[in-house]
Design goal:
Blueprint: E1 12-14, H1 24-27, E2 39-40, H2 42-45, E3 50-55, H3 61-74, E4 78-83, H4 92-95, H5 98-108, E5 114-119, H6 121-124, H7 131-143, E6 151-158, H8 166-174, E7 180-182, E8 190-192, E9 196-200, H9 205-216, H10 220-229, H11 239-252, H12 258-270, H13 284-301, E10 306-307, H14 322-326, H15 332-339, E11 344-348, E12 351-354, H16 357-373, H17 378-385, E13 386-389, E14 392-395, H18 400-406, H19 412-424, H20 440-457, H21 466-472, H22 478-486, H23 492-505, H24 511-519, H25 525-535, H26 541-551, H27 559-569, H28 576-584, H29 588-591, H30 596-607
Parallel strand pairs: 3-6, 3-9, 4-5, 5-6
Antiparallel strand pairs: 1-2, 1-9, 7-8, 10-12, 11-12, 13-14
Helix pairs in contact: 7-8, 9-10, 9-11, 11-12, 13-16, 16-18, 21-23, 22-23, 22-24, 23-25, 24-25, 24-26, 25-27, 27-30
């Protein structure tokens, strides 16, 4: 990562005792809560005698290592930053500049500690795995055995290249004094210590904002708003992700559709990092074809993991063989090079998988498109994606996201798939694909078919994703969506989905229908809760006043509904006495078992701050 360093206060999660190594890489770009909870910062890392920092390509490991080496050097600490792969051809002294040599000399003459940032186990293993240990041997020879107790090692690696048994035991063998402590209570010998292995945490909103402001300045707010509007946060969890999005934003002045973002992400991730571009034998089109083949293998075999060589770690988790998936024309080097791209993560120490599930679905659709162009029959495609019975036609669940991408094509197969989706699963674009690329007439057909199916089958659960609803929404659909929201004969779950469509699609023209739904005597409290949520951040002052008038007529209100109304209207629209009247209308029997007061108190604390403060 060649961008100027930006302080992001990165956090690290201790992997000791984890029962979910399968999700290691997934968690490396997926925020799981407050990032400071149960994690370590650089201060804690630098208090350890030895630490291994794991992260996926583009997670910022080298970025962090270089900068913290500089910071410690400014504090008059003895510090060296060393690329492990460079130790394979040169001695340590040959790699050091005059300042580094001076640091090493002064350290030898002192009794202080020398911190070595040893970067990129994966690069040291690029030719063969044993080279990592050869690089460590070079360090040993240069430092001298008698000085090991005054060393500190901070090692970085891609998750896919760190083997917990082989590598950890090798490091402990070569640097025993860093991995042991004297036996207590007068005993002889030393007691082994487990090497601390941590995973670099994904970026949260605050860190993304910091990075965006450093690049865009005052325009960062527009960029962050665009991430919200496009629900693109899954693509902004590593510094390389954010920088890629910022580059797209800078180049195009927008984030673009989901398809454009995925395409941009694929192109960026299939490129090798600048420091590795020299000698890169994998041409872009070859890498793209290989990625498509592996994505198709994931989808059709319904296995997400691929095996990577690890002689010391055997796993019973099913995984596919990459050379078998790519075919005999792919050399072992090409296979390994493709897997080293930022398109992939390592979910466990013996397996590797794609970084984003949506990218898998997109690439698998591309693979099928190529087969169709080569003569794969449309009737066979239909049999592949759909199943038919006397009860009707159904879309195969595992292939539904792929069908959503194929349906965007204007070729014959795209048109046929769109028609079959109407019949088999009209709610598909509520959760998959990029509905923003569909014409408004087809979007309406989808909604009409969905409502008809739902009415015929009664109340059924429908999988819905808010970001998909955002892409499905269109101003031309406002009249139809409003009519469904007002239609008391529609099942509640249908009206609730339409209310979510209004909210996340920011369909302002539907807000009068939303208020009508709240006012309708036969509307359930669940529908009303979704309706109030749709008004939040969209309603105008007159519409909020109408909501206040409607709320005043309600009785036996469910506490959750009252909280939604109260936090939306008070103190901007209603007076304290009106708030009191609203709360008095809460059903007392339900209120006794509800925690709604906690939400109200939290709202009051946030909104009712004394002006003097």
């Amino acid at each position: 990562m060649n961008s100027p360093y930006i302080e992001l206060s990165r956090r690290f999660r201790d992997l000791k005792g984890s029962n979910s190594l399968e999700s290691t890489a997934f968690e490396s770009y997926t925020p799981t809560g407050r990032l400071n909870d149960g994690t370590l910062g650089w201060q804690e890392i630098l208090n350890l005698p030895i630490a291994v920092i794991l992260g996926e390509p583009g997670s910022g490991k080298t970025w962090e290592f270089r900068e913290h080496a500089k910071k410690l050097r400014k504090e008059a600490k003895s510090v060296l930053f060393i690329r492990l792969d460079q130790l394979l051809a040169k001695s340590l002294r040959d790699l050091l500049d005059a300042e580094d040599i001076s640091v090493l000399k002064n350290w030898r003459q002192s009794d202080g500690r020398l911190t070595l940032f040893l970067d990129s186990v994966d690069e040291a293993k690029f030719t063969k795995p044993i080279d990592f240990f050869n690089a460590l041997d070079t360090v040993r020879r240069e430092i001298g055995d008698h000085s090991f107790d005054r060393l500190q090692l901070i090692i970085s690696s891609r998750i896919s290249e760190w083997q917990p048994a082989t590598d950890a035991s090798g490091v402990a063998h070569k640097f025993p004094l860093l991995c042991s402590i004297p036996v207590k209570k007068g005993g002889k010998g030393r007691e082994s210590l487990e090497i601390k292995v941590v995973q670099i945490e994904p970026l949260d909103r605050e860190r993304v904002e910091t990075l965006a402001k450093s690049r865009l300045g005052a325009q960062a707010t527009a960029f962050l708003n665009a991430l919200d509007e496009h629900f693109a946060w899954d693509f902004a969890r590593r510094p390389v992700d954010v920088i890629g999005l910022l580059n797209f934003w800078t180049r195009n002045g927008r984030l673009g559709s989901l398809g454009e973002l995925i395409e941009f992400e694929i192109q960026e991730c299939l490129r090798e990092s600048p420091e590795r571009e020299v000698g890169d034998s994998l041409k872009p089109e070859v890498g793209r074809n290989g990625a498509q083949s592996l994505a198709a293998a994931v989808v059709f075999c319904r296995k997400f993991n691929f095996r990577v060589p690890d002689g010391s770690h055997l796993s019973s988790t099913p995984a596919m063989d990459v050379p078998a998936c790519l075919g005999p024309l792919w050399s072992a080097k090409q296979c390994n090079t493709l897997l080293s791209r930022a398109l992939f993560d390592s979910p466990s120490y013996g397996h590797i998988r794609f970084h984003h599930r949506r990218i898998v679905e997109y690439l698998a659709a591309e693979w099928l498109t190529q087969r169709l162009k080569e003569g794969f029959a449309l009737v066979d495609l239909e049999d592949l994606l759909f199943t038919k019975s006397r009860h009707g036609i159904f879309l195969r669940p595992s292939l539904a996201p792929v069908a959503a991408w194929l349906a965007l094509s204007e070729e014959t197969w795209g048109k046929q798939i769109r028609q079959l989706i109407i019949e088999a699963d009209p709610s598909l674009f509520f959760r998959a694909g990029d509905a923003s690329k569909l014409c408004s007439n087809y979007r309406r057909e989808l909604m009409e078919a969905f409502c008809e199916k739902s009415r015929a089958s009664g109340s059924i659960w429908t999988e819905v994703e808010n970001d998909s609803l955002r892409r499905l929404a269109d101003p031309s659909l406002s009249d139809y969506v409003s009519s469904i929201v007002r239609d008391q004969s529609q099942p509640d779950h249908v009206r609730e989905i339409m209310l979510r469509l209004i909210r996340h699609g920011r369909m302002h023209d539907c807000l009068d229908a939303v208020l009508d739904a709240i006012q309708a005597p036969s509307s359930s409290d669940d529908v009303r809760i979704y309706a109030v949520a749709a008004l939040r951040n969209l309603a105008s002052p007159p519409q909020l006043k109408r909501l206040a008038a409607i709320a005043a007529t309600l009785s036996d209100i469910r506490p959750e509904l009252a909280v939604h109304i109260a936090t939306l209207l008070y103190p901007s629209t209603i007076l304290p006495e009106e708030l009191e009247a609203l709360l008095r209308n809460i059903n007392p029997e339900i209120a006794r078992s509800s925690t709604f007061t906690w939400y109200l108190i939290k709202h009051f604390e946030e909104k009712l701050v004394p002006e003097a403060s």
